[in-house]
Amino acid sequence: MSDRFAQLITLMAALRAPNGCPWDRKQTHASLKPYLLEETYEVLETIDQNDTAKLREELGDVLLQVIFHSQIAAESGTFTIDDVIDQLSAKLVRRHPHVFGDTAGAAKPSNGEQVLSQWEDIKRAERQAAGGSPSALDGVPKALPALLRAFQVQARAARVGFDWSHDAAGLEDVFKKIAEETGELREALADAHAAPAPATGRDAITSELGDLLFSLVNLARFIKVNPEDALRQATNRFTDRFLLVEAQAAEQRRAMTDMSFAELDALWEEAKRRLREEPSSPTAQSVSKDLPA
User: In which domain, by residue range, is 271 found?
Assistant: First the structure.
């Protein structure tokens, strides 16, 4: 394995060499950002599709991005792939004292949530030791997709007690909050129609819609559903059904733009029926029991 990894590093260095690939040679950390994001989402798609052969390929593409960034850094004298590996290995050991440390006399975490809590405590101590912020919210990347960032911010706040109780009463409070935010959005919409300053009204609508979405993310967290996965899968279902509606319209030799809403709705219901009769897709798995509460 080490020989194959060394060969991969050698290949990347050759691509970046003066007589290497012109495209690879001109890349920077900044120019590679969209590719890293794209490759990450392609990994997620193959997981949703339960395509292990494709997953193997896509994980290789993500690894390429790590190697690429490390080679660029090595050329500037910043760090090398060995530094990346050493730092990761040290981090894994440091953040798993219940596995690698001397925990004699100390209670070991007995479940995933306790391990996650310990992990966050260690991270927070590391940040403070490095002079970073002691905030429970520190370390949540602003570049995360909005739904996932909201989820992580709420989870971090909950770990320090800023949360409703996780029982039937707490869940009811979450639903009440969603109803409250829905009502405030309705009010903002009504006010915007009557307001003399449309721009101000749009700002209020945007704000209230954001509050409603944030509350829905909170519901997802309570019921241990990843909101990013849930929305992606809902979009996938809509796409599958819409493509079938298009196909049905084509079979009838009709343009969708010439059909009434009632006709399109009938095709939609037929598409839903057909897809329900097909074998369940692995993308239907949106619940994760390991998500932080």
Answer: 227-284
Say if 138 falls within a structural domain.
no
For residue range 61-106, what is the model confidence (pLDDT) as tens digits?
999 999 999 999 999 999 999 999 999 999 999 989 989 987 665 6
Question: In terms of domains, do 32 and 86 share one?
Answer: yes
Tally of domains in the chain: 3
Rounded to the nearest 10 degrees, what angle do helices 2-16 and 52-76 cross at? 60
Q: With contact defined as beta carbons under 8 Å apart, do 73 and 28 qualify?
A: no
Q: What is the pLDDT of residues 102-125, one digit of tens each?
A: 766 567 888 887 887 787 778 778
In this structure, what DSSP letter does residue 287 have?
Answer: B
Domain annotation covers residue 161: yes
Q: What is the CATH number of the domain that holds 22?
A: 1.10.287.1080
Give the residue carrying structure tokens 């029926």.
Answer: 273
Residue 287 has φ and ψ, to the nearest 5°, of -90, 130
- Out of 68, 94, 120, a domain closes at 94
- Length of the chain equals 293
Query: What is residue 225's three-state secondary structure?
Result: strand
Which alpha helices (H) appear in the chain, and where do they start and end? 2-16, 22-25, 33-48, 52-76, 81-94, 97-100, 112-129, 146-159, 168-194, 198-222, 227-251, 261-276
